[in-house]
Amino acid sequence: MAKSVAVIIGSLRKESINHRLMLALQNLAGDRLQFHPLHIGDLPHYNEELWAEPPVPVLRLKDRVEHSDAVLAITPEYNRSYPGVIKNALDWGTRPYGENSWKDKPAAITGASPGVIGAAVGQARLKTDMLAVGMVMMPTPEAYIQWKPEAYAADGHVTDPATAKFLGGFVDAFAAWIEKHG
Asked: In degrees, to the nearest 5, what angle opens at C-alpha 177 toward C-alphas 3 and 163?
């Protein structure tokens, strides 16, 4: 049976390279993992007062995370960090006090950038915050992806054998991490 994975994509553009990376990972996972992108772009800015009548996007986020076996974050790097929409989602998921939806979820992180370090600094900062909210982070392999469009088909399949092998290894390790810690 496929494990359910809540996916945080840090770029809100549907055709972003990080969205395309998610499609590639999903294809490589086959029937082992079922990806469910979280809709973090429609979350209001965190405001404790909104818990009086929780916004529907917040309730949807928490429900999806709580009914998932794991979490995968796929992030670009903005100014040597990760996008604020991810931090906002992390904050909503930890509240109200005592109802942390992220707690004890097996998790992994990756991300793509046109630059040679492949969002490494942004991923490092995000990993710290994912640990802080209680996720059980996969330590290795780390996957800092320099985006090369010629390595991916429009339907999400990886066309470059070396890229497919590397990303396949990441997916294999993540599936094993979920089995071990789920």
From this structure: 90
pLDDT digits (tens, 9 = 90+) for 134-169: 999 999 999 999 999 999 998 889 999 999 999 999
Structural contact between residues 130 and 107, judged by C-beta atoms closer than 8 angstroms? yes
Q: φ, ψ for residue 167 (rounded to 5)?
A: -65, -35
Percent of residues in the chain assigned helix, strand, coil, to nearest 5: 45, 20, 35
The tokens describing 169, both together, are 């290894």
Query: 38, 61 in Cβ contact below 8 A?
Result: yes
Per the structure block, which two tokens stand in for 113? 């950038």
Provide the 10 A C-beta neighbour count for residue 139.
9
pTM attached to this predicted model:
0.97
Q: Which two tokens stand for residue 35?
A: 């990806």
Pair 128, 91: CB distance under 8 Å = no
Strand pairing report for 70-74 and 33-37 = unpaired
Q: Which residue spans within the chain are E strands per DSSP?
A: 3-9, 33-37, 70-74, 106-113, 136-137, 143-146
